[in-house]
Amino acid sequence: xxxxxxxxxxxxxxxxxxxxxxxxxxxxxxxxxxxxxxxxxxxxxxxxxxxxxxxxxxxxxxxxxxxxxxxxxxxxxxxxxxxxxxxxxxxxxxxxxxxxxxxxxxxxxxxxxxxxxxxxxxxxxxxxxxxxxxxxxxxxxxxxxxxxxxxxxxxxxxxxxxxxxxxxxxxxxxxxxxxxxxxxxxxxxxxxxxxxxxxxxxxxxxxxxxxxxxxxxxxxxxxxxx
Length: 226
Prior knowledge:
The chain is built from seven helices and seven strands, in the order αββααβααβββαβα. It is of the alpha/beta class. The strands form two sheets. The chain has a five-stranded mixed beta sheet, with helices on both faces. It has a two-stranded antiparallel ribbon with strand order 1-2. Helix 3 runs parallel beside helix 7 (206-220) and helix 4 crosses helix 6. It starts with 15 loop residues before the first helix and ends in a 6-residue tail after the last helix. The model has no long low-confidence stretch (mean pLDDT 92).
């Protein structure tokens, strides 16, 4: 009887508490401006969470919530970075000292020579995809649920701009664990494009695929999202 934007399905096997949360989050009659998530660096209102419904374009607040969740449970040598870095890199602007300090303290939780994998949600012309910088293998892993030969070059250029931005952000001895430590050069890494299932052409699910890839890589280093 509730006016829900999303109807939970029986095969989701949701508990009564989860059903109540879903009903509250996705109720159209409640204020869309109501703040529902306020955790550390991450905030989101009902309007942002409403983008999780079918055929909606997931906004960056949702992916940043996933990032915030994962950095609380992952190893310090794995970085999950928010979308603010992509925005700054693609717009060619410097981060304020306060923002840079916050990113370093909350998201980049080890020295750069100790990091093993960096996960960065990417945005290009209305489409989400994921870049994973595999430092140990010196690879730039390109995960895209809606590959388009006409867009591939632009998306890879975006990855290159972000990796160069990260290199510039992490200059200085304070980013290294010791005087003899070697700074990784992300810009010298080769692209790797795993064979992936693809989303429905008519869906707007790219943001959901990026979220699932980050979760699965954190748990199993597996990209086989269906």
